Amino acid sequence: MSETPFYFPRDDARLFGLLHRPDGTASRTGFVLSHPFAEEKLWSHRSFVSAARALAAAGHPVLRFDYTGAGDSSGYAPDTSLETHLADLAAATRALAAQVPGLDRIGLIGLRFGATLAALTMERAADPATGSTLPAALRTGPLVLWDPILDGAAWLQDVMRADLAAQLASLGKVVHTREALTARVLAGGIVNIDGYELGRDLFASCDRKDLLDATAKRHAGPVLVVPIAPPGKLKPRADLEALAGSYARATVRPAEEQPFWREIKQFYGKAPALQALTLEWLASA
After folding, report:
1. Which of 96, 152, 167, 232 has minimal Cβ neighbours within 10 Å of its Cβ?
2. Cα–Cα distance between 221 and 218 in angstroms, integer?
3. How many CB atoms within 10 Å of residue 16?
4. Are 118 and 109 spatial neighbours (Cβ–Cβ below 8 Å)?
5. Angstrom distance (rounded) from CA 60 to CA 284
6. CATH class of 2-150+212-284
7. What's the sign of the alpha-carbon dihedral 219, 271, 231, 282?
8. Which residues does residue 245 pair with via DSSP β-bridges, in sequence order?
9. Domain regions of the chain by residue span
10. In a structure prediction context, what are the per-residue pLDDT tens digits for the chain, which is 285 residues long?
11. Are the C-beta atoms of residues 28 and 141 closer than 8 Å to each other?
C-alpha cells in the first residue's frame, strides 16, 4: 500500500488529502472518508487512519481529507457553512476520481457530522439538478453512516456544552449560558469549542431538527447505518431505523464501541468492532 499526500482545489480553497492506494490490482470501488466536526475530528483521527488502511488492504483506493478550516486545509473555520462543507466533500470525490481513473463506484464513509454530510452529498449525486457536478460513480456507490447527526439543533446545543464545561474548568462557574452563546454566534461572533471556532454561517445552516430526515431518499446504492454505543449500552434507535427505512437498500447494524470521537480514558488506535462490521458489510454489499 502507498500513501500519498496532495492538495486539491475547491473554488478558492486548497484542501489537503491523503490517498491510500492498495498494492496489486485494485478494486474498482473507491472511498472518500468524511471526518466529524471540531474536537471529534481530533479524537477519531487514528481510527480514521486505521479504517483507511484496512480498506486499502482489502483492495480499495481511499481518500482521507480535511475540510476547509480543519487540519492542513486552507481557510478559516468560522467562515464555513453547511454548503462549504458539502462543496468540500464534492471536491474530494472529484479528486479521488481524478487520482484513480476508471472507478466504477465511489463510496462515502462518514462519522457523526461527517456522516450527515456524506448522506446529503449522495442525495445531490442522485438529483438530476445537481448530480452533473459530481462523479457518476457516486450514484451507485456504498454509503456508510457511522452514528450520523440527524437533529442539527440538538447537536449544536451539545457542541455548545463543551464551552460551558471549559468555563467551569477555567472560571469555576458558567459565565455565558448556552442561550448567550447562541445569541453571540447568531450576531456574528465566534464561539470557541475546545479550541475550535464556530461561526454564524455554519451554526445558522445546521440549526434545524431535520438536518438529515427520514423522507424518501434518491440514492440507489447500498447503505449501512451504524448506531454506536459502549458495550452493554446499545438500545434500539428509532430515528436511525427510520432513516434506514428512507433508503431503497439500507441495513442497520449496531456497533459496540466506546465514543472514540470524544476524550475518553481508553486510547483508540482503531475502532475494531466498527471496522470489522463495516468491512464485512462491504464485502457482502
Report:
1. 232
2. 9
3. 17
4. yes
5. 15
6. alpha beta
7. positive
8. none
9. 2-150+212-284, 155-203
10. 899 999 999 998 999 999 999 998 778 999 999 999 999 999 999 999 999 999 999 999 999 999 999 999 999 999 999 999 999 999 999 999 999 999 999 999 999 999 999 999 999 999 999 999 999 999 999 999 999 999 999 999 898 887 777 777 777 877 788 888 889 999 999 988 878 899 999 999 999 999 999 999 999 999 999 999 999 999 999 999 999 999 999 999 999 999 999 988 888 899 999 999 999 999 998
11. no
Q: 61 with 100: CB under 8 angstroms? A: yes
Cell of 196: 475550535
* Burial of residue 4 (number of CB atoms within 10 Å: 0-12, 13-18, 19+): exposed
